[in-house]
Amino acid sequence: MPICNVGNSENLFMCLQEVLTAKNIPWENVVGYSSDNAAVMIGNNYSVLSRIRGQVPNVVNIGCPCHII
Fold it and tell me: Which top-level group of life is the source organism from (predicted)?
């Protein structure tokens, strides 16, 4: 598991990409994304979600299940 020392979207996305590569999971297999509601995770610009959508444009954002209600 990679260590992300800086919690910005670029580093978090790079860590995610490292894990997917290490586990031989292609981006085409990524269909959904769930995270907390912080801007760095799901914001419209420069978030982890926007970076994932750069790889998988139709990924489904589920959002934080604890904060949906």
Answer: Eukaryota
